[in-house]
Amino acid sequence: MSELFRIEQRDPETFRRQTRRSTLIVVVLFALLGMALPALLIGLFGSADGSNFGLNLTGVLLAAAITATLVRTVFLKQSWMDAAAYGWRLKRALMRVTNQMHQAKDAVKAGDEQAMLLLRFYHLGLQQMHHLDGNTSDMLELVAEREQLREALVERGLAEDQMVLRSEWLEHLAGRTKG
Fold first, then answer.
1. How is 81-105 classified by DSSP, letter by letter?
2. Phi, psi of 19 (to 5 degrees)
3. For 96-134, what is each residue's pLDDT tens digit?
4. How many Å apart are CA 104 and CA 97, to the nearest integer?
5. What's the pTM?
6. Which residues contact 86 (CB under 8 A, 6 or more apart)?
7. Which of the 8 DSSP states describes residue 141?
8. Taking a C-beta distance cutoff of 8 angstroms, is the pair 35, 62 a contact?
9. Rounded CA gap, 19 and 13, in Å?
10. Rounded Cα gap, residues 179 and 174, in angstroms
């Protein structure tokens, strides 16, 4: 079975502190580059009597591209970026399920066990995302659906702790809609 994502236990306060720190670092880097690159381009290629809007815009776009490249190639590998990277991966995993949510709910209603496991992962992942973000009000919306699914899993003898998103579940769901 191919594991796409695994939910990890994380302390919400530490998670928020670490994501604020990494966000601040990236924003400061972008701001510095966003000011320095346009100034450099205007200094090298600008004219005192003409409009330098194009050079300003080019400098800011270059700053955005350099910042994005540094985040993807260098920063994501750094320990100070771990919490933010985990949050992005969690949200991406949840989005993969969300993209097939209608099919998943229909399959669960039809008694499809793989769809039940997929939806249980989604509920647990969403619960963790809200917990990490400190958004407890949104967690209350799915309580009945989450509990009903948990009970159905227990009745079938399936594990209720679905902490891993498996590619097979998504492929199975995609295959159901094609066939």
1. GHHHHHHHHHHHHHHHHHTTHHHHH
2. -70, -35
3. 999 999 999 999 999 999 999 999 999 999 999 999 999
4. 8
5. 0.86
6. 8, 10, 15
7. G
8. no
9. 10
10. 9
